[in-house]
Amino acid sequence: MQFKINTHLEHYDATVIAQCLTWFPLERKENVLRMKTIQGRREKVAAYELLVELLRETGRLKELPTFVYNEFGKPELSGYPGLFFNISHCRNAVAVALNDAPVGIDVECRRRVARAVIERVCCETEITAIDSAPDSVMEFIKIWTQKEALLKCIGTGIRENMQQILIENTDYQIFTNPLPDVDGFVSVCAPIVK
Length: 194
Prior knowledge:
The protein has seven helices and eight strands; from the N terminus they run βαααβββββααααββ. With 194 residues, it is an alpha+beta fold. Strands 1-5-4 form a three-stranded antiparallel β-sheet, with helices on one face.
């Protein structure tokens, strides 16, 4: 499993985005242009550029990748059989993961979190950890990235019982790290190889 993070999205202004779109496949260009804000376009362009860079660095780039989507909306790489990928982005970071088995990645930066959200998605043990942490918001962000990375790896998206998802799925490994240069976390999830 390989993954890559970019926490320097500030240089993706309208000019850089327009330049990138000149070499993007039509499907990706249309996906970017559906975003109404410069921030949304910045995240999409940075994520795709990071995907191409990771494919190139790992010697797997055959052609510019295009996406197809499964019934749950999870993207797959067209023309890359047996190669799994996942992308995540937030306002200050993008992350991409590649693997020979299903993979999920989530990146999140510090943001306000309502107590109702914590109670809806966390089990009692996680709530206790959040409440006793020196920085309860960042503890929640860490747990959230783990849950979302797992759900993205499974491929169903946020359709499962969020409170029990980490307890019930023990056939997966999750790696979590603080983001470099940004107040946040990244989590990557893949099946445990037996």
